[in-house]
Amino acid sequence: MPARTTTPPDLVVEKQSAKTAPPPMYRVILLNDDYTPMEFVVHVLQKYFGKGQEEAMRIMLQVHHEGKGVCGVYPHDIAASRIAQVAQHARARQHPLQCVMEPAGDE
Q1: Checking phi first, is residue 94 left (phi over 0); if not, alpha (psi -120 to 50) or beta?
Q2: Helix, strand or coil for residue 94?
């Protein structure tokens, strides 16, 4: 026979709400190289990061002049997926374009 437990009548049980934090975010960064055509970089920014023509041109010029440019800020899995897509697309077209991610921090 199972044992029965009784709770005292003056016992108050509080329900704790579960708090979820937003996932950590990562910057996806394109790195400059001397071989990938500027038009291809613009194409990648439009195709994989949803940038318009003007914003893609601005980021491409930043990559060209400063050595790197931020494509977007995403959760880890999405950032890793975008990086893999860019790498596969670039390699298939024989371009050495590289994309990396870094923690976004609290800016």
Answers
A1: left
A2: coil
pLDDT in tens, 38-71: 999 999 999 999 999 999 999 999 999 999 999 9
Residues 14-50 as b/e (b if ≥16 CB within 10 A, e otherwise) read eeeeeeeeeeebbbbbbebeeebeeebbbebbeebbe
User: What one-letter code names the amino acid at 79?
Assistant: A
Backbone angles phi, psi at 99, to 5 degrees: -135, 135
Residue 2 has what pLDDT? Answer: 60
CA–CA dist 12, 77 (Å, integer)? 42
Cα dihedral sign, 57-95-103-76: positive
As a three-state string, the secondary structure of 38-91 is HHHHHHHHHHHHCCCHHHHHHHHHHHHHHCEEEEEEEEHHHHHHHHHHHHHHHH
